[in-house]
Amino acid sequence: MVIRCMGSLSNYSSPPVSEFLLICFPNYQRWQHWLSLPLSLLFLLAMGANATLLITIQLEASLHEPMYYLLSLLSLLDMVLCLTVIPKVLAIFWFDLRSIGFFPCFLQMFIMNSFLTMESCTFMVMAYDRYVAICHPLYPSIITDQFVAKATIFIVARNVLFTVPIPILSVRLHYCGRNVIENCICANMSVSRLSCDDVTINSVYQFAGGWTLLGSDLILIFLSYTLILRAVLRLKAEGAVAKALSTCGSHFILILFFSTILLVFVLTHVAKKKVSPDVPVLLNVLHHVIPAALNPIVYGVRTQEIKQGIQRLLKKGW
Fold first, then answer.
1. What residues make up the domain containing 61?
2. What is the pTM of this model?
3. Vertex 294 angle, CA 219 and 160, to 5°
């Protein structure tokens, strides 16, 4: 197969790339087994907590309400993200299984990009849900099952349509033999840089699309909680302010953590000449498991109705 590589004065024959090799933390190979321990514990916590939350909401009739449906959607997104990334990373750490097929790599890329933005959009809808619950007395007539269904369709459609070009732009590139990805996952630019084509379009679309989706969500989330804070400070009922701040404060802190770890990852990636290349790789992996482990705890366990639902299910199990 003859492939034209940009920057070369002549064509040359090269076998098509059928798989990639994922190289996690090349400077810290000896520490990978130790790193796998906290990573596997976080993975088990994330999967167990989210599965418990989903089962509780499914089996408890009292939790069949819009707010808990949104929590279920968030848990489902977290579980898919974890299953897409962490098992492969642990297989690399434990068994040195670094190879990943050509199309499985781009499938992983698509799932990571689309589900990550879906999660951000779900945070935005949940922030709106809290705003309506606190600031509007007609909450039950606004946030209905129909609203959740429409919001779910919007979350999926918007983010799939905007992120599907990312793997398409990468898969169309010509890969001229290099197949070693210096990352634990098939991140868009980590893969695209292996090609012998110009990847400017890939980089620009990734940056513009990512910041358009995540940036707009973040602005609307901050706006919702600003309006919530203003409304809460006007409440005069005894204990109402503390209860509202306790509920929304934990939610806001978790969203802030989600945004901060993403911002740190972007900054370290931009300043890669001054930061060890292993730092953004580690942050990228952790960003797929830490929020997933914290979300069901902050959103679920701290909600009284869910705690009571879990207790009732445990009693039935006994």
1. 18-317
2. 0.89
3. 50
